[in-house]
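Progress note, sequence design subtask.
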Protein backbone atom coordinates (compact mmCIF):
# COMPACT_ATOMS: atom_id res chain seq x y z
CA UNK A 1 0.00 0.00 0.00
CA UNK A 2 1.26 3.47 -0.93
CA UNK A 3 0.38 6.88 0.49
CA UNK A 4 0.96 10.21 -1.21
CA UNK A 5 1.88 12.76 1.49
CA UNK A 6 2.71 16.31 0.46
CA UNK A 7 2.17 19.61 2.27
CA UNK A 8 3.85 22.97 1.62
CA UNK A 9 4.53 23.29 5.36
CA UNK A 10 7.39 21.15 6.67
CA UNK A 11 5.69 21.32 10.09
CA UNK A 12 2.59 19.55 8.75
CA UNK A 13 4.57 17.23 6.49
CA UNK A 14 6.70 15.86 9.32
CA UNK A 15 3.68 15.47 11.62
CA UNK A 16 1.73 13.41 9.08
CA UNK A 17 4.75 11.25 8.23
CA UNK A 18 5.26 10.58 11.96
CA UNK A 19 1.64 9.43 12.25
CA UNK A 20 2.05 7.03 9.32
CA UNK A 21 5.07 5.48 11.04
CA UNK A 22 3.04 5.15 14.24
CA UNK A 23 -0.20 3.72 12.83
CA UNK A 24 0.63 2.29 9.39
CA UNK A 25 4.37 1.52 9.33
CA UNK A 26 3.86 -0.94 6.48
CA UNK A 27 2.66 1.82 4.13
CA UNK A 28 5.17 3.22 1.65
CA UNK A 29 5.18 7.05 1.56
CA UNK A 30 5.85 9.10 -1.55
CA UNK A 31 6.09 12.88 -1.67
CA UNK A 32 6.19 13.01 -5.47
CA UNK A 33 2.89 13.47 -7.26
CA UNK A 34 2.05 9.94 -8.45
CA UNK A 35 1.01 9.29 -12.03
CA UNK A 36 -0.97 6.18 -11.07
CA UNK A 37 -3.61 5.83 -8.38
CA UNK A 38 -2.40 5.34 -4.81
CA UNK A 39 -4.52 3.98 -1.99
CA UNK A 40 -4.14 6.96 0.38
CA UNK A 41 -3.77 10.64 -0.44
CA UNK A 42 -2.96 12.68 2.67
CA UNK A 43 -1.99 15.95 1.03
CA UNK A 44 -2.76 19.60 0.47
CA UNK A 45 -6.17 20.15 -1.14
CA UNK A 46 -4.72 21.42 -4.43
CA UNK A 47 -2.58 18.28 -4.85
CA UNK A 48 -5.29 15.66 -4.37
CA UNK A 49 -6.57 13.73 -7.39
CA UNK A 50 -10.28 13.74 -6.67
CA UNK A 51 -11.01 11.66 -9.77
CA UNK A 52 -9.33 8.71 -8.06
CA UNK A 53 -11.61 9.11 -5.04
CA UNK A 54 -14.69 9.19 -7.25
CA UNK A 55 -13.73 6.33 -9.54
CA UNK A 56 -12.60 3.81 -6.91
CA UNK A 57 -14.24 4.63 -3.60
CA UNK A 58 -13.57 1.13 -2.20
CA UNK A 59 -9.80 1.35 -2.62
CA UNK A 60 -8.96 5.04 -2.41
CA UNK A 61 -8.91 7.42 0.58
CA UNK A 62 -8.36 11.18 0.49
CA UNK A 63 -7.76 13.85 3.13
CA UNK A 64 -10.23 16.39 1.73
CA UNK A 65 -13.72 16.61 0.33
CA UNK A 66 -13.82 18.12 -3.14
CA UNK A 67 -16.85 20.33 -2.48
CA UNK A 68 -16.78 22.07 0.92
CA UNK A 69 -17.02 25.82 0.39
CA UNK A 70 -20.40 25.88 2.17
CA UNK A 71 -18.21 25.72 5.27
CA UNK A 72 -14.89 27.25 4.26
CA UNK A 73 -16.02 30.47 2.54
CA UNK A 74 -17.41 33.00 4.96
CA UNK A 75 -20.24 34.18 2.71
CA UNK A 76 -21.36 30.64 1.89
CA UNK A 77 -21.19 29.64 5.56
CA UNK A 78 -23.49 32.48 6.55
CA UNK A 79 -25.96 31.79 3.74
CA UNK A 80 -25.93 28.05 4.43
CA UNK A 81 -26.64 28.39 8.14
CA UNK A 82 -29.26 31.05 7.50
CA UNK A 83 -31.05 28.64 5.13
CA UNK A 84 -30.71 25.77 7.60
CA UNK A 85 -32.17 27.82 10.46
CA UNK A 86 -35.10 28.81 8.24
CA UNK A 87 -35.68 25.14 7.42
CA UNK A 88 -35.57 24.22 11.11
CA UNK A 89 -38.00 27.05 11.88
CA UNK A 90 -40.53 25.34 9.61
CA UNK A 91 -39.93 21.96 11.25
CA UNK A 92 -40.49 23.52 14.65
CA UNK A 93 -43.83 24.90 13.47
CA UNK A 94 -45.03 21.37 12.71
CA UNK A 95 -43.35 19.78 15.77
CA UNK A 96 -40.91 17.80 13.61
CA UNK A 97 -37.85 18.52 15.81
CA UNK A 98 -37.20 16.72 19.10
CA UNK A 99 -36.38 18.59 22.30
CA UNK A 100 -32.62 17.94 22.34
CA UNK A 101 -32.28 18.92 18.68
CA UNK A 102 -34.26 22.10 19.33
CA UNK A 103 -31.83 23.12 22.09
CA UNK A 104 -28.80 22.51 19.86
CA UNK A 105 -30.32 24.51 17.01
CA UNK A 106 -30.98 27.38 19.39
CA UNK A 107 -27.30 27.26 20.40
CA UNK A 108 -26.32 27.59 16.73
CA UNK A 109 -28.72 30.49 16.24
CA UNK A 110 -27.21 32.36 19.19
CA UNK A 111 -23.68 31.47 18.05
CA UNK A 112 -24.03 33.25 14.70
CA UNK A 113 -23.27 37.00 14.74
CA UNK A 114 -25.69 39.10 12.69
CA UNK A 115 -24.23 39.11 9.20
CA UNK A 116 -24.59 40.63 5.73
CA UNK A 117 -23.01 39.35 2.50
CA UNK A 118 -22.06 41.73 -0.31
CA UNK A 119 -20.34 41.73 -3.70
CA UNK A 120 -18.21 44.83 -4.26
CA UNK A 121 -15.70 45.19 -7.09
CA UNK A 122 -14.97 48.91 -6.59
CA UNK A 123 -15.77 51.52 -3.95
CA UNK A 124 -18.30 53.11 -6.34
CA UNK A 125 -20.45 49.97 -5.98
CA UNK A 126 -21.21 50.87 -2.37
CA UNK A 127 -23.95 53.36 -3.32
CA UNK A 128 -26.15 50.61 -4.71
CA UNK A 129 -25.19 48.08 -2.02
CA UNK A 130 -26.05 50.49 0.81
CA UNK A 131 -29.50 51.01 -0.67
CA UNK A 132 -30.09 47.30 -1.19
CA UNK A 133 -28.26 44.49 0.66
CA UNK A 134 -27.04 46.84 3.41
CA UNK A 135 -30.18 48.94 3.82
CA UNK A 136 -30.84 47.94 7.45
CA UNK A 137 -27.12 48.19 8.28
CA UNK A 138 -27.04 51.68 6.79
CA UNK A 139 -30.06 52.65 8.87
CA UNK A 140 -28.37 51.35 12.02
CA UNK A 141 -25.22 53.37 11.31
CA UNK A 142 -27.24 56.53 10.62
CA UNK A 143 -29.15 56.13 13.89
CA UNK A 144 -25.96 57.17 15.71
CA UNK A 145 -25.85 53.98 17.74
CA UNK A 146 -22.66 52.78 19.42
CA UNK A 147 -22.58 49.60 17.33
CA UNK A 148 -19.44 48.59 15.49
CA UNK A 149 -19.12 46.20 12.58
CA UNK A 150 -16.35 44.06 11.15
CA UNK A 151 -15.67 43.63 7.42
CA UNK A 152 -14.08 40.38 6.20
CA UNK A 153 -13.24 39.23 2.68
CA UNK A 154 -15.02 35.93 2.10
CA UNK A 155 -11.97 34.13 0.73
CA UNK A 156 -8.93 35.87 2.25
CA UNK A 157 -6.96 34.43 5.14
CA UNK A 158 -4.22 35.54 7.58
CA UNK A 159 -6.37 38.55 8.64
CA UNK A 160 -6.02 40.21 5.23
CA UNK A 161 -8.75 42.74 4.53
CA UNK A 162 -10.31 42.64 8.00
CA UNK A 163 -11.40 46.10 9.13
CA UNK A 164 -13.62 47.65 11.82
CA UNK A 165 -16.07 50.47 11.10
CA UNK A 166 -19.05 52.22 12.67
CA UNK A 167 -20.19 54.61 9.94
CA UNK A 168 -20.90 54.81 6.24
CA UNK A 169 -18.01 57.24 5.87
CA UNK A 170 -15.53 54.81 7.42
CA UNK A 171 -16.82 51.94 5.28
CA UNK A 172 -16.29 54.03 2.14
CA UNK A 173 -12.77 54.91 3.25
CA UNK A 174 -11.98 51.21 3.68
CA UNK A 175 -13.03 50.34 0.14
CA UNK A 176 -11.21 53.39 -1.24
CA UNK A 177 -8.09 52.07 0.52
CA UNK A 178 -8.63 48.70 -1.16
CA UNK A 179 -9.08 50.44 -4.54
CA UNK A 180 -5.77 52.21 -4.01
CA UNK A 181 -4.11 48.91 -3.14
CA UNK A 182 -5.44 47.42 -6.38
CA UNK A 183 -3.88 50.28 -8.35
CA UNK A 184 -0.54 49.78 -6.58
CA UNK A 185 -0.58 46.10 -7.56
CA UNK A 186 -1.25 47.04 -11.17
CA UNK A 187 1.79 49.35 -11.05
CA UNK A 188 3.97 46.68 -9.44
CA UNK A 189 4.10 48.39 -6.03
CA UNK A 190 3.19 46.17 -3.12
CA UNK A 191 3.60 46.66 0.63
CA UNK A 192 4.46 43.27 2.11
CA UNK A 193 3.23 44.32 5.57
CA UNK A 194 -0.11 45.64 4.34
CA UNK A 195 -3.26 43.67 5.13
CA UNK A 196 -5.29 45.48 2.48
CA UNK A 197 -6.89 43.44 -0.30
CA UNK A 198 -7.88 44.06 -3.89
CA UNK A 199 -11.66 44.35 -4.18
CA UNK A 200 -11.54 43.78 -7.92
CA UNK A 201 -10.00 40.35 -7.31
CA UNK A 202 -11.99 39.23 -4.26
CA UNK A 203 -15.40 40.94 -4.66
CA UNK A 204 -17.17 38.83 -2.00
CA UNK A 205 -17.27 40.19 1.55
CA UNK A 206 -19.16 39.59 4.77
CA UNK A 207 -20.01 42.22 7.34
CA UNK A 208 -20.70 41.04 10.88
CA UNK A 209 -21.94 42.88 13.90
CA UNK A 210 -18.86 43.25 16.08
CA UNK A 211 -19.08 41.15 19.26
CA UNK A 212 -18.54 43.85 21.86
CA UNK A 213 -18.51 41.68 25.00
CA UNK A 214 -15.67 39.17 24.55
CA UNK A 215 -14.38 37.32 27.57
CA UNK A 216 -11.10 39.03 28.51
CA UNK A 217 -8.27 37.12 30.19
CA UNK A 218 -4.83 38.12 31.41
CA UNK A 219 -2.58 35.77 29.40
CA UNK A 220 0.46 36.60 31.55
CA UNK A 221 -1.02 34.89 34.61
CA UNK A 222 -1.49 38.20 36.44
CA UNK A 223 -4.39 40.59 36.93
CA UNK A 224 -3.18 43.63 35.02
CA UNK A 225 -3.60 43.30 31.26
CA UNK A 226 -6.71 41.73 29.80
CA UNK A 227 -6.74 40.52 26.22
CA UNK A 228 -9.26 39.21 23.77
CA UNK A 229 -8.80 35.62 22.57
CA UNK A 230 -10.46 33.02 20.41
CA UNK A 231 -10.47 29.24 20.48
CA UNK A 232 -8.96 27.38 17.53
CA UNK A 233 -10.78 24.05 17.51
CA UNK A 234 -9.58 21.39 15.09
CA UNK A 235 -12.52 19.40 13.78
CA UNK A 236 -12.34 16.08 11.96
CA UNK A 237 -15.03 15.14 9.45
CA UNK A 238 -15.03 11.50 8.34
CA UNK A 239 -16.94 9.83 5.52
CA UNK A 240 -20.50 10.88 4.92
CA UNK A 241 -20.53 11.86 7.71
CA UNK A 242 -19.24 11.73 11.27
CA UNK A 243 -17.77 14.78 12.98
CA UNK A 244 -15.28 14.59 15.85
CA UNK A 245 -13.79 17.37 17.95
CA UNK A 246 -10.44 16.53 19.58
CA UNK A 247 -10.30 18.19 22.99
CA UNK A 248 -6.76 19.43 22.26
CA UNK A 249 -7.62 23.07 21.61
CA UNK A 250 -5.67 26.30 21.21
CA UNK A 251 -6.43 29.68 22.77
CA UNK A 252 -5.02 32.45 20.56
CA UNK A 253 -4.70 35.91 22.13
CA UNK A 254 -4.49 39.40 20.70
CA UNK A 255 -1.06 40.84 21.48
CA UNK A 256 -2.42 44.13 22.85
CA UNK A 257 -4.79 44.61 25.78
CA UNK A 258 -8.43 45.08 24.85
CA UNK A 259 -10.19 48.41 24.55
CA UNK A 260 -13.58 49.18 23.09
CA UNK A 261 -13.35 49.91 19.33
CA UNK A 262 -12.13 53.36 18.35
CA UNK A 263 -11.41 54.84 14.93
CA UNK A 264 -7.76 55.54 15.77
CA UNK A 265 -7.07 52.23 17.47
CA UNK A 266 -4.76 49.46 16.30
CA UNK A 267 -6.41 46.26 15.13
CA UNK A 268 -3.93 44.31 17.25
CA UNK A 269 -6.16 44.60 20.32
CA UNK A 270 -9.17 43.26 18.41
CA UNK A 271 -7.83 40.61 16.03
CA UNK A 272 -6.56 37.38 17.53
CA UNK A 273 -5.07 35.83 14.37
CA UNK A 274 -1.60 34.67 15.41
CA UNK A 275 -0.19 35.34 11.92
CA UNK A 276 -1.13 39.03 12.31
CA UNK A 277 0.89 39.46 15.49
CA UNK A 278 4.23 39.05 13.71
CA UNK A 279 7.21 36.73 14.06
CA UNK A 280 8.37 38.47 17.26
CA UNK A 281 5.18 37.59 19.14
CA UNK A 282 5.76 35.90 22.50
CA UNK A 283 4.08 32.56 21.78
CA UNK A 284 4.45 31.37 25.36
CA UNK A 285 2.16 34.22 26.41
CA UNK A 286 -0.22 34.64 23.50
CA UNK A 287 -0.60 31.06 22.20
CA UNK A 288 -1.87 28.70 24.88
CA UNK A 289 -3.61 25.38 25.23
CA UNK A 290 -7.17 25.43 26.52
CA UNK A 291 -6.05 23.72 29.73
CA UNK A 292 -3.61 26.56 30.45
CA UNK A 293 -6.51 28.99 30.81
CA UNK A 294 -7.65 27.30 34.01
CA UNK A 295 -6.91 29.63 36.92
CA UNK A 296 -6.27 32.67 34.71
CA UNK A 297 -7.93 35.90 35.81
CA UNK A 298 -10.66 37.61 33.80
CA UNK A 299 -11.33 41.34 33.59
CA UNK A 300 -14.04 40.92 36.24
CA UNK A 301 -11.50 39.52 38.73
CA UNK A 302 -12.71 35.92 38.55
CA UNK A 303 -10.59 32.89 37.74
CA UNK A 304 -11.37 30.50 34.90
CA UNK A 305 -12.70 27.22 36.31
CA UNK A 306 -12.65 23.68 34.92
CA UNK A 307 -16.46 23.82 34.84
CA UNK A 308 -16.34 26.88 32.58
CA UNK A 309 -13.98 25.15 30.18
CA UNK A 310 -16.19 22.04 30.11
CA UNK A 311 -19.14 24.30 29.31
CA UNK A 312 -17.26 25.85 26.39
CA UNK A 313 -16.38 22.39 25.06
CA UNK A 314 -19.99 21.24 25.30
CA UNK A 315 -21.32 24.33 23.52
CA UNK A 316 -18.58 24.20 20.89
CA UNK A 317 -19.28 20.55 20.02
CA UNK A 318 -23.00 21.20 19.63
CA UNK A 319 -22.56 24.38 17.58
CA UNK A 320 -20.03 22.69 15.28
CA UNK A 321 -22.22 19.61 14.87
CA UNK A 322 -25.23 21.73 13.93
CA UNK A 323 -23.17 23.88 11.55
CA UNK A 324 -21.92 20.82 9.65
CA UNK A 325 -25.42 19.34 9.64
CA UNK A 326 -26.65 22.62 8.20
CA UNK A 327 -24.05 22.39 5.43
CA UNK A 328 -25.19 18.84 4.65
CA UNK A 329 -28.89 19.67 4.62
CA UNK A 330 -28.94 23.18 3.20
CA UNK A 331 -25.63 23.59 1.41
CA UNK A 332 -25.35 20.22 -0.29
CA UNK A 333 -24.43 21.76 -3.65
CA UNK A 334 -21.34 23.24 -2.02
CA UNK A 335 -20.69 20.62 0.66
CA UNK A 336 -20.61 17.00 -0.43
CA UNK A 337 -19.04 14.58 2.03
CA UNK A 338 -18.05 11.30 0.41
CA UNK A 339 -17.64 7.94 2.16
CA UNK A 340 -13.93 7.49 1.38
CA UNK A 341 -12.59 10.86 2.52
CA UNK A 342 -11.91 12.78 5.70
CA UNK A 343 -10.90 16.37 6.39
CA UNK A 344 -9.55 18.50 9.23
CA UNK A 345 -10.95 22.01 9.63
CA UNK A 346 -9.72 24.77 11.89
CA UNK A 347 -12.84 26.25 13.48
CA UNK A 348 -12.56 29.63 15.20
CA UNK A 349 -14.86 30.34 18.13
CA UNK A 350 -15.14 33.39 20.37
CA UNK A 351 -16.19 33.14 24.03
CA UNK A 352 -18.20 36.05 25.44
CA UNK A 353 -18.16 37.37 29.00
CA UNK A 354 -21.42 35.46 29.57
CA UNK A 355 -19.69 32.22 28.44
CA UNK A 356 -21.60 32.01 25.17
CA UNK A 357 -19.69 30.50 22.25
CA UNK A 358 -19.81 32.42 18.95
CA UNK A 359 -18.93 30.78 15.63
CA UNK A 360 -16.54 32.89 13.56
CA UNK A 361 -15.42 30.66 10.68
CA UNK A 362 -14.34 27.28 9.35
CA UNK A 363 -10.86 27.13 7.81
CA UNK A 364 -9.92 24.47 5.29
CA UNK A 365 -6.25 23.44 5.17
CA UNK A 366 -5.53 25.06 8.56
CA UNK A 367 -2.02 26.38 9.15
CA UNK A 368 -0.71 24.03 11.83
CA UNK A 369 2.62 25.85 11.83
CA UNK A 370 1.08 28.79 13.73
CA UNK A 371 0.86 26.48 16.76
CA UNK A 372 4.61 26.58 17.33
CA UNK A 373 6.92 23.99 18.86
CA UNK A 374 5.82 24.27 22.50
CA UNK A 375 2.27 23.12 21.75
CA UNK A 376 3.13 20.78 18.87
CA UNK A 377 1.48 17.97 20.86
CA UNK A 378 -1.91 19.55 20.04
CA UNK A 379 -1.30 19.13 16.31
CA UNK A 380 0.08 15.63 16.95
CA UNK A 381 -3.18 14.72 18.69
CA UNK A 382 -5.30 16.15 15.87
CA UNK A 383 -3.38 14.26 13.19
CA UNK A 384 -3.44 11.10 15.34
CA UNK A 385 -7.23 11.48 15.56
CA UNK A 386 -7.39 11.64 11.76
CA UNK A 387 -5.83 8.17 11.73
CA UNK A 388 -7.76 6.64 14.64
CA UNK A 389 -11.17 8.01 13.63
CA UNK A 390 -10.47 8.52 9.93
CA UNK A 391 -8.01 6.46 7.92
CA UNK A 392 -8.03 3.33 10.10
CA UNK A 393 -11.83 3.21 10.22
CA UNK A 394 -12.06 3.80 6.47
CA UNK A 395 -9.59 0.92 6.00
CA UNK A 396 -11.74 -1.29 8.23
CA UNK A 397 -9.07 -1.55 10.96
CA UNK A 398 -11.46 -1.27 13.90
CA UNK A 399 -9.27 -3.09 16.42
CA UNK A 400 -7.03 -0.06 17.03
CA UNK A 401 -7.38 1.48 20.50
CA UNK A 402 -8.19 5.19 20.51
CA UNK A 403 -5.60 7.25 22.36
CA UNK A 404 -6.88 10.73 21.44
CA UNK A 405 -9.80 12.12 23.42
CA UNK A 406 -12.52 13.39 21.09
CA UNK A 407 -16.13 14.50 21.34
CA UNK A 408 -18.49 13.21 18.66
CA UNK A 409 -20.34 16.25 17.32
CA UNK A 410 -22.41 14.59 14.62
CA UNK A 411 -23.26 11.16 13.21
CA UNK A 412 -25.41 11.72 10.15
CA UNK A 413 -26.19 9.68 7.06
CA UNK A 414 -25.66 11.77 3.95
CA UNK A 415 -27.51 10.14 1.07
CA UNK A 416 -26.60 12.45 -1.79
CA UNK A 417 -22.92 11.64 -2.23
CA UNK A 418 -21.14 11.18 -5.50
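Output:
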Amino acid sequence: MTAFVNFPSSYTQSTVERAFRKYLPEVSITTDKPSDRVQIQYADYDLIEFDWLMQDSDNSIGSSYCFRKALTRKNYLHQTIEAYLAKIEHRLSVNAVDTSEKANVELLRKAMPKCWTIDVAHSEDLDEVLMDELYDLNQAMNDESDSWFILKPAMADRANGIRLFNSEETLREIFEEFDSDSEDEDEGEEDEESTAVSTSQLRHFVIQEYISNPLLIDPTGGKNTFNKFHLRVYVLCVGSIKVYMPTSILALFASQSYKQPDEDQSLLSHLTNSCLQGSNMDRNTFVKSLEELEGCYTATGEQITPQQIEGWLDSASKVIGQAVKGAVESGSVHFQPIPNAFEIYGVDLLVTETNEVKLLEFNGCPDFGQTGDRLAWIVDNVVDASFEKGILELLGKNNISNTVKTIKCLDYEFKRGW
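The mean pLDDT is 89. Work on this subtask will continue into the next period as scheduled.
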